[in-house]
Amino acid sequence: MTLLPPRDLTTRPITDRVKESVFSILTPRLPGAVVADLFCGTGSLGLEALSRGARRAIMVDTDKDALKRLRKNIEKLRFDSQASVIPVNAFRKGIPILPQDKIESGELDSSQPESDMTEPAISKSVRKCNLVFVDPPYKLSRDTAEQSLLGKLLEIVSGQLENRGLVVVRHEKRSVLLKSYADLYEIDRREYGGMAVTFLEKAVE
């Protein structure tokens, strides 16, 4: 799957080797899944999930150039009806919300203020996600304490996941996440060069 890459180094594209390794772990969870890709850049993770059987992807970022390229990638891969592009800061809301009449179409006007988003950005029959990618800039994920930006985000996301839902966090190898955040518990960690990927699963409520 060939995508338009980021124009500069503002976003950090994941290598094919790392992506293949991560998705080999995720494969059993993907068919029919509702996925959120937070800090998505040009969409590498969310679009890969759709290509492997996910039902819907919620793509979130604030980089305008990356989002332009993301929309072109979505069009190129013909995922228009399955992907929602939402230009908001994920640290504020976790998985964002959309107007009800935009949910099924996957459309969102990037000029729309966040205060107008009043419904979950997933189908009317599903209120929570099954899989969430969290890939913030490294400098914003170095502090992994419970009250850090990342810690507070993971607490929010915990409430937006189905039971046994999975959160995949990409971060620097030297950063070590806590063993738990709210109802999320670490189940695996993989290291690739200078980066690491931590997998957190939501406990059954």
The ordered H/E elements are: HEHEHEHEHEEHEEEE
Backbone structural class? alpha/beta
CATH class (first level) name: Alpha Beta
User: Order of strands in the sheet with the most strands?
Assistant: 3-2-1-6-7-10-9-8
Structure description:
- The protein is an alpha/beta fold.
- The protein contains six helices and ten strands.
- It has helices spanning 16-26, 44-51, 64-77, 90-93, 100-103, 149-158; strands spanning 34-38, 56-60, 83-86, 97-98, 119-120, 129-134, 161-172, 180-181, 184-192, 195-202.
- It is globular, with a radius of gyration of 15 Å.
- The model is unreliable at 99-120 (pLDDT under 50).
Structure in a nutshell:
The chain has 205 residues and is an alpha/beta fold. 25% of the residues lie in helices and 27% in strands.
